[in-house]
Amino acid sequence: MNNKNDYKNVSIHDTSFVDDNVTIGQGTKIWHFSHILQDCNIGKDCSLGQNVVVGPRVTIGNKVKIQNNVSIYEGVTLEDGVFCGPACVFTNVNNPRSEIVRKNEYRKTLVKRGATLGANCTIVCGVTIGAFAFIGAGAVISKDVPPYALMAGVPAKQIGWMSEYGEKLDLPLTGNTKTICKHTKHQYQLQGNKVNKID
Q1: Could you say which of 48, 105, 180, 197 would form a disulfide bridge with 52 (CB–CB 3.0 to 4.6 Å)?
Q2: pTM of the model
Q3: How would you classify residue 114: left for phi > 0, otherwise alpha for psi between -120 and 50, otherwise beta?
Q4: CB burial string 39-56: b at 16+ within 10 A, e below
Q5: What's the mean pLDDT when you consider all of the chain?
């Protein structure tokens, strides 16, 4: 175990554990009963809630917020600004069995910059969630999600598009049109089945 005092400008609650060879960026807070396993890299200004488990060998970007009761397993990467709602679930094996060891079959899961994962959603291993996508509470994601997509349901289906600010955009699912985020006034363009921020 690392000495918690070795981390400068990092807050680690007395009830939490940090294993060897872990990097934690300045300004990060790790709350009660959490465990960071070996060989993890956690960025700056992150917040890990109560009873969070990370790793081993997980990379988490800067300004990531992980709410209570979340486990980030080996094979998962969270880019900058990702939000993980309470009790959201990651997997790392597609067909687990208790009596079969499948550690060599872990599938990689990538959650790109600024994406939001709602409370109690499930992210099945092997998918990529696009930048600033928004996964509704309780949704089950088993396929790649495009950037800015709003997903809901079991299994999850796309029901709209979201701005970087986190507001639903007035856009159809497909077509060629533009709209603005009502809060920030930034413009977004839909081309076919893809959305891009254009200013």
Answers
A1: 48
A2: 0.96
A3: left
A4: bbbbbbbbbbbbbbbbbe
A5: 96
